[in-house]
Amino acid sequence: MNDAQLTIFTPTYNRGYIIKNCYESLCQQTNKDFYWLIVDDGSTDNTEELVESWKRENKLNITYIKQENSGKHVAHNTGVLNCKTDVFVCVDSDDYLTEDAVSVIYNQWEKINSNHSLAGMIALKGYANGKPTGTRMPAGINQCKMFDLYQKYGFKGDAIIILRTEVLRKNLFPVFDGEKFVTEAVVYDKIDQEYEVLLVDRLLYICDYLEDGYSRNILKVHRASPKGYMFFLSERINYAKSLTDRYKAISYFLAGRWRVKHKQPIEYLDYKILYLLAIPKAIIIFIKPIIKNLLIKFGVFK
Q: What is the reported pLDDT for 217?
């Protein structure tokens, strides 16, 4: 790779109180050959003033774009379309990178440059204590599809995904009127249809789950953006490679409809018998988190 062929993209919305951690981690990188592209999704706090002060410090090459509040997925599209480098990675404003993250990305990218079947790489996210959010990468597997990493090889936890910008430009997030959230899996599932990713068993990304973050409020987020959520679940049905996978995808589709109280008619009825057969499994999927939350409420689980 040539120097500065990496863009670190940060979408942000009213995170002026914590985005400094991300900034400081980027200043501490052992390799500073990257651009920091910040897309502000209509913040009303001091985010813009903070970024302007960092630009004056001139420690990093920073581009700042402010847009009308539209949701993280729209900010991501804005970032991809304004990216001027070959490699793109998203680092949320409440998270940060390990000091060697950029160096590791550059070192591993040499394997990707010569392999056009790879869209990029996937590495570990973890906590400040150095522990991954889930498992390590599967032993003996160098590359695979992102879906297979979780479903076939049993990987658990969150991961940082570094991708070719050209691949992302061909796979932008869909946008639904009046909705401000579409899960990242919509893009990754689409990329999976053509590419695999390199597996890197290194912790590069440190995260925390804030009370106002998407992860802590996912049911509320899905109910506020039902069209985007149901689009994701319906695409999983379309991408299913086997009858078993399609049955499972339909089960999650039905449970998802009930969970977000989606009342629009089901448009995807190419597999009517499977929809009927999937109802019992969908009921289990639907009630499982309800029971878990009740057990947590009464102190049985933490």
A: 77
Q: Is-contact 132 125, C-beta < 8 A?
A: yes
**Residue type for 193, please?**
Q
Using DSSP's 3-state secondary structure scheme, residue 275 falls into: helix
Sequence letter at residue 190: K
Helix (H) or strand (E) holding 257: helix 243-260
Cα separation, 225 vs 246, whole angstroms: 24
CA gap 90, 162 in Å, rounded = 8
SS3 193: coil
Q: How confident is the model at residue 89, as a pLDDT?
A: 98
Residues 161 and 197: beta-carbon distance below 8 Å: yes
CB 164 within 8 A of CB 140: no
- Identity of the residue numbered 250: I
* Segments of the chain scoring below 70 in pLDDT: 1-4, 209-216, 267-269, 301-302
The pair of structure tokens assigned to 176 is 């639904």
Beta 96-97 vs 61-66: how paired, if at all? Answer: unpaired
User: Percentages helix, strand, coil for the chain, rounded to the nearest 5?
Assistant: 45, 20, 40
So what's the pLDDT on residue 292? 83
Beta bridge pairs of residue 87: 6, 164
Helix ranges (H only) for 261-299 are 272-297
Burial zone of 3 (CB within 10 Å; 0-12 exposed, 13-18 middle, 19+ buried): exposed
